[in-house]
Amino acid sequence: MAKYTININDENQEVEASxxxxxxxxVREQLGLMGTKYSCGIGACGACTVHIDGxxxxxxxxxxxxxxxxxxxxTIEGLSSDSSHPVQKAWVEAQxxxxxxxxxxxxxxxxGLLNQNPSPSKEEIVKYMSANLCRCGTYMRIAKAVEMAAxxxx
Amino acid sequence: xxxxxxxxxxxxxxxxxxxxxxxxxxxxxxxxxxxxxVSCKNESEIINAVNENGVSAWVQLTKEGLITIFSxxxxxxxxxxxxxxxxxxxxxxxDWDKVSVEFAPQDADLYGRDLKWKGRSxxxxxxxxxxxxxxxxxxxxxxxxxxxLSSAAKRWDVDIKNLTTxxxxxxxxxxxxxxxYGEVVSFLEIPSNIPTIPDDQLKxxxxxxxxxxxxxRTDIPYKVNGTAQFAMDLKLPDMLYGSINRxxxxxxxxxxxxxxxxxxxxxxVGVYDIGYGIGIVTESVTEGFMARHFLEIDWSKSDASGxxxxxAFDTYDKVLEDGKSGKEMHNEGDVKLARESxxxxxxxxxxxxxxxxxQQEPLNAVARVAEDGASAEVxxxxxxxxxxxxxxxxxxxxxxxxxxxxxxxxxGGFGRRTLSDxxxxxxxxxxxxxxxxxxxxxxREDDLQYGMYRPASLQRMEAFTDEDGNLTGFTHDVVGxxxxxxxxxxxxxxxxxxxxxxxMHIVPHGIRVKHWRAVGHGTNKxxxxxxxxxxxxxQNTDPVEFRKKILEPKxxxxxxxxxxxxxxxxxxxxxxxxxxxxxxxxxxxxxxxxEISLDRSSGKxxxxxxxxxxxxxxxxxxxxxxxxxxxxxxxxxxSIFNEQIxxxxxxxxxxxxxxxxxxxxxxxxxxIETEILxxxxxxxxxxESSTPLVACAVANAFFAMTGKRxxxxxFTPARVLEALAS
Lengths: 154, 726
Ligand code: FES
Ligand code: FES
What we know:
Distance between the termini of chain B: 58 Å
Structural class of chain B: alpha+beta
Shape of chain A: elongated
Strand content of chain A: 15-25%
Radius of gyration of chain A: 15 Å
Number of domains of chain B: 3
Distance between the termini of chain A: 53 Å
Oligomer: heterodimer
CATH architecture of the largest domain in chain A: Roll
Structural class of chain A: alpha+beta
CATH class of the largest domain in chain A: Alpha Beta
Bound molecules: FE2/S2 (inorganic) cluster
Number of strands of chain B: 32
Number of strands of chain A: 5
CATH superfamily of the largest domain in chain A: Beta-grasp domain
CATH architecture of the largest domain in chain B: 2-Layer Sandwich
Radius of gyration of chain B: 28 Å
Strand order of the largest sheet of chain A: 2-1-5-3-4
CATH topology of the largest domain in chain B: Aldehyde Oxidoreductase, domain 4
């Protein structure tokens, strides 16, 4: 066990964990930020997606030691305080979620895409968002909502 | 409109769930018992009223006009938590903007409905939520409205007959007076005689404001900001974590060889043999996962030992060749006569491998057992909270009344979560460390390898046609693993085929099997609809025209609709082909058409367009249904192209999404178009309807393109290449 300071949603937080602990479990079980989900634990589904310095990252395979040098971690709770991020608004507008379990990860991944590419083409959206899995099959609406958020929908 | 997300605080038992918000609760009987009104301030009054009268509280109303409706079904993405309250609110004539929704407590006597095979139940399954609660909730909503009306009539001293309602208000036209529902609260009174509202006094469907309108789902705002609470998200004071190694051989028993060493590992609180697995309780999640790596366990043999799924179909074939008698599931007309008088007889085989649910939230539950062991609480996302409570009570040796189940959102169900196993496991571990709560987490590998699969099966069809090519009947033998699941969906509702017989042959392999979205429809409709297509092709008949001749009028409308949507029969660009399918599931009729292309060198089939049309009777939430149909088609595509559990010596060979690759966005069709027919028959169940359309439509399109048949799901590239070479 060691003590670390991490910057999460613009706050510094003291956490205690073994160095083998992945960021996901710190975020969820220590800090109680439950929007970030566990599903595969091997980096294959994207349910655990957070941003590290604005870049979409899988927290289930990110060791805690990789984020202790002042990197800015953002979880779904920090994306906006009132669901007002354009991606979140588009998600409601398009009625994307079904069970909802994958959706924090989808939203963070989509926001990560728009951070680096504010108006992606349909092909770029499909390519990028194919990293994230949705068992309920909400992909058609996800693609539409990303276009809505980017303002590229017709 | 909002949905409370912290059910653990607001709805924690039938004894206390009403007390929070003040106002009044209208307690309305499901079985003709008189309604009661109780103040929500007085908890004991509620308890007494509920206990004495066996009435259920469907709704709570405050002076401010805020309305809380209790929803009896699980919410796992299918939209029940919006659809069911809408039915109630429609008849109550509630202003939807003032409505919030909470899960009803898990109490089947109060919130259940009668199921033929089970009695009173709150189980959410088989697309039956709306269908089975429609009349109950309409009646309850209408009675709530009646109580409001009668109180207002008394207050104004007018005849109740001269009162009408608008959204959350009572109107007396003659005197030009209005009163909001909230205003009635202070003098609300139980009328001496509350009638059962006859059907003809319920709202005329043409006056529906909410049913059939596009209403945003109540749960979605919480699913875009991470606040929707799944059981996985509980964090209780002093909570420990549980993890169980159940081995890879279904049914094997463990002997732990290094208990001492495991107990000394960091964070380990205890190690427990639960009969079919070894559970570890730790202070943190990571410590549990770590400790598991070091478990040394000897596993016994089990019924699944030696079973290889690759050999199953030889076994199934032999069962049929040996002519062993099975269980007759359907027998209409006289197939013997149809066979004897047939001008042509056709025999076709179809097969399917095991597949896995893969709900995105791995199974989990949080349990707390009281220090004296006499009571327990469990937080769980379940399709069946009532039986979960009973099973936990049984496992702990305590009374059902002392077990409280707190329903949470489900991160997918698809049939896996009608069982209580994961709740019981959490409770057993929590008992060991009582009163500290335990969050039991199945890893994805646990969830997949100790999964319960849709069973493998073989379908053998023997079909008969007369001189004119009419399909006079067919026999359908289904052979496969595990109980009745394999024969589900082998009926042919919607078709006029006079002679039809289904025989089921069970060959147990010791593998855990379970309902999977649409259950046996996925496999049996694949067989039936491909058979139709093969006969049509033999006769040189268009497959849509072939089906038109043998469909009843109501289902036929869905086929005609989808043919119009897809512009069936138009000439296609080269390299494209189309296939069609029809089916009935939970009384919903569905037809689908897909358009595919094929990479002949790799064996990869691409679906470009999918059209479907459905008649589900009255539809409560059309947009939500469209979303379900879209998702169901995507899940169907995933299941027929990507998904396969193979078993070697009783052990599943796959472990996680890396080797069980659920479909991604890049493999989606360009368009999925869904139409819901506007009809007035009572609601049917629709949540699972589109999934089983996919296999048959795609296989039939493949035939149209290549003249070859895909007979074995999944249609992996290797199988596609094999079919092409045949
Ligand atoms: S849980 Fe991290 S990628 Fe699946
Ligand atoms: S909404 Fe259920 S997994 Fe995506």
